[in-house]
Structure formats: structure tokens, C-alpha cells
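Can anyone check this?
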Amino acid sequence: VTSGRTQIFDLSLGGEIRFGVTTRIVYAEWWGALGNNSKTDNQTPIQQAIHALEDSPSTVIGGYVLLSGGIYLCSSYVKLSNRVALKGSNGRDTVLKVNNATWDGSRNLVLCRNEATILNITGITQANPCVVTVSDTSALIDGYVMRIENVGGMTQVNDIDFSIDVLSATTIRLNAYGTTTGIDSTAYTAYTTGGTITRHISQFHVKLEDLTVDANDNVDVTRLVYAPSWNEHCGTRRCLIYNYTLSGIKIDSNYGGTSTVGIDQTEFFASATSTYAAGLDILSSAISNWTNYS
């Protein structure tokens, strides 16, 4: 594809654009992204550009999604897929920013995570061990690491990685991460509704480069850049992580451990409204090889 940095694709009525291995660089502006500090839903065209490059089970594609200089307001998070990098024109000139007036409450502005299986939860027991009911367990096997999110009532299980054992066609047992020891949920609040349990897998060659990522002091954005799947050759380069109220970059789990993850030439500036904030928040058990900071 040869084009200037103007919109050439319109997916407002549905559909998708996918590129093969010969196209490794695309511009988010092709899908309608505008860094004019006015358009408030830039997460949609940026996500469409990422989707055009993301790899599939049979093909490794990947590449760069480029953004010109400007302020790109977002109303929800952008999810980076495996082997795709998001790159601006300059670490100060290209800004990916939370738009507070339309923000949907997401906890991340950039989410770096690969989801292999997502199941809706219909029940969780207060028992020892804790048992979760889902629609279908046929895609699961014992020992998978899975994360529970957005559960109502039994919030003690939210945002935690568990190892699982498959009990039946619709039930799984929750075990402590990396073990076969069942979770005791007898003292947890009773489950009420909703939630998902997701199997995540590692990411490779996922990067943020030459970008300012700005939480805009939003207290809902507790993990500005959240990277539970980062593994080989992932990280940031020449970035400014800005105005976060809790965590600037949070790395945990990694589903195999970080290996050659780089936080390179990256600056951190917390929100002036925050009483406590961590620029780089890393779960130590996630580091199985090495992470480079410079």
C-alpha cells in the first residue's frame, strides 16, 4: 500500500483490513486517527491498524503502526497484539492521551496482552477448593494459567492469575498460581454476577517507541501501560510515561517470564495529584531471565 497520511479506509459499517507479510508498516491515519487534540475516539482507528498487522495462528506477520506528531485523545484503551509495535514521530511530539470527558473507566490506556481463550463465568463457589462454572471447558487442560476479571460480589478473585484443573465439561478448580493447591474461598464474599476467566499467552516483539503516553491525571487509569504478556524483545524506547496516578508501567505474570524486555530511554512523571505512584511496577516473580533498563 502506498499512500500519504490521510484516511483511506472506512470500517464504520464493519469488515476488516488485513495485510500479508509484504506490508510491515502502516499509518493509523489510514483508518482515520487524528492527532488534533479534538477527535476523542482515536483508540478505534489505532486498534484497526494494529489488527491489520497482528499475527494469526498460521502466519507470523507483525510490524509497525506509525502515528504522526500530535495529541491523540482516546476514550478507551488500545490493545497491542503480538509482534506489533506502536511508534510515534518523536517521544515528545506524539501523545497518546486519556480524554477524561469521554473515558469509559478502563484501567489501562495501553494493554499489552494476548488472549487465547476467554470464557464467561456463571458461578463461583464459596468452598475449599474454589470451583468456577463456565459455559464450556473443552479448550482447557489442567495446569493452564488463567486470569479472572470483572466478577461481581466475589471481588477477591479479580485481577489474579490462577492455575486451573478441569473438573467437568463446565467447571474448573482454581489453584494458587504455579501450583496444584486449591484456593480456599470460604471466607470470600459471595459471587453475584458476571466476570470472565481468560487464558493468556506470552507476547514477543511488542513495543512502544517514540511516544508520550499520558493518563491525564485520571484516577481510573491505575495501570497506564499494562503488560502482563511481555516476553522476548518487548518494552519501551524513547517514551515519556506521564501523569499516571498509580502505576506508569506495570509488568506481571508474563506467562513464561520476561526475557530481554527493555525499558530504554524512558522517562516517568507521575501525576501531581497522586500521593503514591510507581513509575515501573514489576512483580518480581515475573522475572525469570532479565530485563534491561537504560
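Reply from J.R.: I decoded it. The first strand starts at residue 25 and ends at 27.
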